[in-house]
Specification:
289 residues; four-stranded mixed beta sheet; 7 helices; 27% helix
């Protein structure tokens, strides 16, 4: 494979988001001082899935309303009401919507600025293998999205008597996130040129759960859509009811956030200078080093 034909940026998630520069990222537009990426590769799970599962033999799909109720193209397979996290990162990078890999039309010019491989239900081993392959063909700069506070999702709360957060699940996520950073520290010493950023989705999301008004939220515990019992309270019920004030809800279904949270996370991932939100620096800086 010719590395010169690959986009600069690769995004992957489960349970992290990965941004990888396959060529030097400090290439700038002569008229702008901001480093630019030419495209994005995406790997991961339902947080980033933009329609791959529509073409796969699986029950985990979001190609029906109310998913996509606010999206310009309707229900495309995104597990939220509008744009997902990678869409917002692409907006910041001034890139077009990245096509789904499984879509038969995703070929030729359509994938000249990247392609999205993310699939709902994919596992950590899938992502790990993809990441190593990317490194072997030249990937050197990575930004990982850690696990959010799963215990505070509507699905997890539903199993609690008091409907509060399941702190056991949150603690498990917290421990994983610590080990993620420790693992990256080791990898940095073993893989020449490897550089990484960790976006602390756990902390950012928990901030709004504890102080909803900080993000303009009024409901951080319920799902915006009516969830399906058949999905275990995770997915929206097809044709079911949906809240009207979607920008005020943190969660769209029993597990996945609304676009409102995705937009905040993407902005902080790129611009925040707080090491409690993105460590050791933000994605903008990653493009410069």
């Amino acid at each position: 494979m010719n590395n010169k034909n690959l986009p600069n940026l690769v995004v992957s998630i489960f349970p992290f988001i990965l941004l990888t520069c396959l060529r030097p990222c400090n290439t700038t537009n002569p008229s702008s001082k901001k480093p630019e990426f030419r495209g994005i590769f995406v790997f991961g799970n339902s947080i980033l899935d933009n329609g791959n599962n529509n073409f796969l033999n699986t029950a985990l799909k979001a190609n029906y309303l109310p998913y996509g109720i606010d999206f310009q193209f309707g229900a495309t397979g995104r597990f939220t009401n509008n744009k997902n996290l990678v869409d917002h990162i692409g907006d910041i990078l001034k890139l077009p919507l990245i096509p789904a890999f499984s879509n038969p039309q995703s070929k030729g010019v359509a994938i000249s600025q990247g392609v999205n491989h993310a699939s709902a239900g994919s596992g950590i081993l899938d992502a790990t293998g993809s990441n190593m392959e990317l490194y072997n063909i030249g990937a050197r700069k990575f930004a990982f999205l850690n696990i959010g506070p799963l215990g505070c999702s509507p699905m997890a709360r539903a199993s609690m008597r008091n409907k509060e957060c399941n702190e056991a699940l949150n603690y498990a996520a917290f421990l994983f996130n610590i080990q993620l950073i420790q693992m990256l520290d080791v990898i940095t010493t073993q893989m020449p040129g490897f550089q990484s950023v960790v976006v602390n989705v756990f902390q950012i999301t928990l901030e709004f759960i504890r102080n909803p008004s900080f993000g303009g939220f009024s409901d951080v515990s319920s799902s915006c859509c009516e969830v399906s019992e058949q999905s275990g309270g995770v997915l929206c019920k097809g044709g079911g009811s949906v809240c009207s004030n979607r920008t005020s809800f943190l969660f769209f279904d029993g597990l996945h956030p609304t676009e409102a949270l995705y937009g905040i996370v993407a902005t902080r991932a790129y611009y925040s200078n707080s090491t409690s939100e993105v460590y050791p620096f933000n994605i903008q800086r990653l493009a410069q080093v």
